[in-house]
Design a protein that fits this description.
With 165 residues, this protein is mainly alpha-helical. The chain is built from 7 helices and 3 strands. It is 47% helix and 7% strand. Strands 1-2-3 form a 3-stranded antiparallel sheet, covered by helices on one side. α2 crosses α7.
Length: 165
Protein backbone atom coordinates (compact mmCIF):
# COMPACT_ATOMS: atom_id res chain seq x y z
CA UNK A 1 0.00 0.00 0.00
CA UNK A 2 1.37 3.42 -0.94
CA UNK A 3 1.87 6.38 1.36
CA UNK A 4 -1.15 8.23 -0.02
CA UNK A 5 -3.45 5.23 0.47
CA UNK A 6 -2.20 4.79 4.04
CA UNK A 7 -2.69 8.50 4.73
CA UNK A 8 -6.26 8.48 3.41
CA UNK A 9 -7.04 5.44 5.55
CA UNK A 10 -5.49 7.12 8.57
CA UNK A 11 -7.36 10.43 8.31
CA UNK A 12 -10.62 8.66 7.46
CA UNK A 13 -10.91 7.31 11.01
CA UNK A 14 -10.49 10.73 12.66
CA UNK A 15 -13.76 12.12 14.03
CA UNK A 16 -13.41 15.65 12.66
CA UNK A 17 -16.58 16.83 14.41
CA UNK A 18 -15.26 16.00 17.90
CA UNK A 19 -11.83 17.63 17.85
CA UNK A 20 -11.11 19.64 20.97
CA UNK A 21 -13.70 17.95 23.17
CA UNK A 22 -10.99 16.43 25.36
CA UNK A 23 -7.73 18.08 26.33
CA UNK A 24 -4.56 16.10 26.93
CA UNK A 25 -0.98 17.16 27.70
CA UNK A 26 0.19 15.18 24.67
CA UNK A 27 -1.71 17.54 22.38
CA UNK A 28 0.40 20.60 23.34
CA UNK A 29 3.52 18.45 23.19
CA UNK A 30 2.64 17.33 19.65
CA UNK A 31 1.89 20.91 18.64
CA UNK A 32 5.34 22.02 19.77
CA UNK A 33 7.02 19.25 17.79
CA UNK A 34 4.98 20.13 14.72
CA UNK A 35 6.10 23.77 15.09
CA UNK A 36 9.73 22.63 15.20
CA UNK A 37 9.38 20.51 12.06
CA UNK A 38 7.30 23.07 10.16
CA UNK A 39 9.74 25.90 10.93
CA UNK A 40 12.68 23.81 9.80
CA UNK A 41 10.88 22.79 6.61
CA UNK A 42 9.80 26.35 5.76
CA UNK A 43 13.36 27.65 6.19
CA UNK A 44 14.54 25.18 3.57
CA UNK A 45 11.46 25.25 1.32
CA UNK A 46 9.61 28.53 1.73
CA UNK A 47 6.30 28.79 -0.03
CA UNK A 48 3.15 30.82 0.05
CA UNK A 49 1.36 29.80 3.24
CA UNK A 50 0.31 31.00 6.67
CA UNK A 51 2.95 29.34 8.89
CA UNK A 52 2.78 26.78 10.34
CA UNK A 53 0.04 25.69 7.92
CA UNK A 54 2.32 24.57 5.12
CA UNK A 55 1.09 24.10 1.56
CA UNK A 56 3.34 21.40 0.11
CA UNK A 57 2.28 22.25 -3.46
CA UNK A 58 3.54 25.82 -2.90
CA UNK A 59 6.81 24.77 -1.24
CA UNK A 60 7.89 21.79 -3.35
CA UNK A 61 5.70 20.97 -6.34
CA UNK A 62 2.12 19.90 -6.93
CA UNK A 63 1.69 16.12 -7.03
CA UNK A 64 0.32 14.39 -10.12
CA UNK A 65 -2.57 13.05 -8.01
CA UNK A 66 -5.50 15.48 -7.76
CA UNK A 67 -5.65 15.75 -3.97
CA UNK A 68 -8.66 18.09 -4.00
CA UNK A 69 -10.78 15.21 -5.36
CA UNK A 70 -10.19 13.01 -2.29
CA UNK A 71 -13.60 12.74 -0.60
CA UNK A 72 -12.43 12.73 3.01
CA UNK A 73 -11.46 16.41 2.62
CA UNK A 74 -15.16 17.27 2.30
CA UNK A 75 -15.70 16.08 5.88
CA UNK A 76 -13.23 18.62 7.27
CA UNK A 77 -15.04 21.92 7.87
CA UNK A 78 -12.22 23.86 9.53
CA UNK A 79 -9.97 25.64 7.01
CA UNK A 80 -6.83 25.18 9.15
CA UNK A 81 -7.41 21.44 9.46
CA UNK A 82 -8.27 21.12 5.78
CA UNK A 83 -5.10 22.96 4.73
CA UNK A 84 -2.91 20.83 6.93
CA UNK A 85 -4.52 17.55 5.86
CA UNK A 86 -4.41 18.55 2.18
CA UNK A 87 -0.70 19.24 2.54
CA UNK A 88 -0.20 15.93 4.33
CA UNK A 89 -1.91 14.13 1.44
CA UNK A 90 0.15 16.11 -1.11
CA UNK A 91 3.34 15.09 0.68
CA UNK A 92 2.28 11.44 0.71
CA UNK A 93 1.42 11.55 -3.01
CA UNK A 94 4.85 13.06 -3.74
CA UNK A 95 6.50 10.31 -1.69
CA UNK A 96 4.69 7.75 -3.85
CA UNK A 97 6.04 9.65 -6.88
CA UNK A 98 9.56 9.30 -5.40
CA UNK A 99 10.08 13.05 -5.02
CA UNK A 100 13.39 13.32 -3.10
CA UNK A 101 12.37 16.38 -1.06
CA UNK A 102 9.12 14.72 -0.01
CA UNK A 103 10.93 11.50 0.85
CA UNK A 104 13.41 13.42 3.02
CA UNK A 105 10.51 15.09 4.86
CA UNK A 106 8.12 12.15 5.13
CA UNK A 107 7.60 12.67 8.89
CA UNK A 108 6.87 16.40 8.63
CA UNK A 109 3.17 16.14 9.48
CA UNK A 110 3.35 13.18 11.88
CA UNK A 111 2.93 15.32 15.05
CA UNK A 112 -0.08 17.16 13.61
CA UNK A 113 -1.79 13.99 12.40
CA UNK A 114 -1.19 12.33 15.77
CA UNK A 115 -2.65 15.44 17.41
CA UNK A 116 -5.84 15.04 15.37
CA UNK A 117 -5.92 11.30 16.07
CA UNK A 118 -5.81 12.11 19.79
CA UNK A 119 -8.75 14.50 19.44
CA UNK A 120 -6.79 17.74 19.60
CA UNK A 121 -6.53 20.73 17.33
CA UNK A 122 -4.82 24.08 17.20
CA UNK A 123 -5.42 27.36 15.42
CA UNK A 124 -3.44 30.49 14.68
CA UNK A 125 -4.17 34.08 15.69
CA UNK A 126 -1.86 37.10 15.65
CA UNK A 127 1.47 35.30 15.92
CA UNK A 128 0.28 32.64 18.37
CA UNK A 129 -1.00 29.11 18.16
CA UNK A 130 -3.80 28.27 20.53
CA UNK A 131 -4.24 24.78 21.89
CA UNK A 132 -6.09 23.55 24.97
CA UNK A 133 -6.66 27.08 26.23
CA UNK A 134 -2.96 27.91 26.04
CA UNK A 135 -1.10 30.10 23.60
CA UNK A 136 2.25 29.26 22.04
CA UNK A 137 4.15 32.08 20.42
CA UNK A 138 5.32 31.30 16.90
CA UNK A 139 6.94 34.59 15.93
CA UNK A 140 10.52 35.33 16.94
CA UNK A 141 11.11 31.81 18.30
CA UNK A 142 13.78 29.61 16.72
CA UNK A 143 11.57 26.52 16.78
CA UNK A 144 13.86 24.75 14.33
CA UNK A 145 16.72 24.99 16.85
CA UNK A 146 14.76 23.22 19.59
CA UNK A 147 15.59 19.61 20.42
CA UNK A 148 13.31 17.08 18.69
CA UNK A 149 10.63 15.61 20.92
CA UNK A 150 9.94 11.89 21.12
CA UNK A 151 6.37 11.49 19.84
CA UNK A 152 6.11 7.74 20.24
CA UNK A 153 2.75 6.51 21.50
CA UNK A 154 4.42 5.30 24.70
CA UNK A 155 5.68 8.79 25.54
CA UNK A 156 2.40 10.44 24.58
CA UNK A 157 0.39 7.98 26.66
CA UNK A 158 2.72 8.52 29.63
CA UNK A 159 2.24 12.30 29.38
CA UNK A 160 -1.52 11.89 29.33
CA UNK A 161 -1.50 9.41 32.21
CA UNK A 162 0.62 11.72 34.36
CA UNK A 163 -1.73 14.62 33.81
CA UNK A 164 -4.76 12.45 34.66
CA UNK A 165 -3.35 11.59 38.09
Amino acid sequence: MGYLSQAIKRISVIDWGCLGEKEFVSQSYLCREYLRRATKFLKNYPGTCIPPFIMISNSIIEPQENIEMIEILNEINNSYHKTLVTSYLELCALIDEKNPIAMDNKDLFEPAIKLYERGGFFYRREGYLYINGNSIIIADVAWDEKEPLDISDEILDALDNLSAE
